[in-house]
């Protein structure tokens, strides 16, 4: 399972999400799932539908328990986690998952994406 986790501002649109994903996917295996925090799932549905990928909503309390490679001041203030994208990818990929790299930021700086690899489902 290869999970793309997302963190994004409330005004982020499909192009922001695609931009972050494109940057994160460079040199990585194909993504099989998308993930973000539960209260942001609705904003990620258009991307999931366009890509034909399943989407997982991660409970906010599950993000806090995840150690991330990067530390964003905005993520720490909003969610008490270093990177929502990295934590979402890791939580979405399940126990024992590992990041394939740090989060990447969309060209317009509205969204971030990180890729994690977990066990096959």
From TrEMBL:
Q: Which UniProt keywords apply?
A: Methyltransferase, Transferase
CobE/GbiG C-terminal domain: from which residue to which, for each copy?
2-116
Does Transferase show up as a keyword for this record? yes
Biological process (GO), any one: cobalamin biosynthetic process
Q: Which domain of life is it from?
A: Bacteria
Gene3D superfamilies attached here? CobE/GbiG C-terminal domain
* One example GO MF annotation: methyltransferase activity
Keyword field contains Transferase: yes
Q: Pfam family example for this protein?
A: CbiG_C
N-terminal signal peptide: none
Name assigned to this protein = Precorrin methylase
């Amino acid at each position: 399972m290869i999970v793309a986790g997302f963190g994004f501002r409330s005004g982020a649109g499909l192009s922001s999400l695609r931009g972050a994903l494109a940057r994160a996917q460079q040199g990585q295996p194909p993504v099989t799932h998308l993930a973000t925090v539960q209260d942001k799932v609705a904003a990620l549905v258009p991307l999931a539908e366009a890509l034909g990928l399943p989407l997982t909503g991660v409970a906010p309390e599950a993000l806090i328990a995840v150690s991330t490679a990067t530390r964003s001041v905005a993520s720490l203030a909003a969610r008490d986690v270093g990177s929502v994208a990295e934590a979402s990818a890791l939580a979405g990929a399940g126990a024992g998952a590992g990041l394939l790299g740090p989060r990447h930021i969309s060209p317009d700086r509205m969204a971030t994406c990180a890729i994690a690899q977990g066990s096959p489902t």
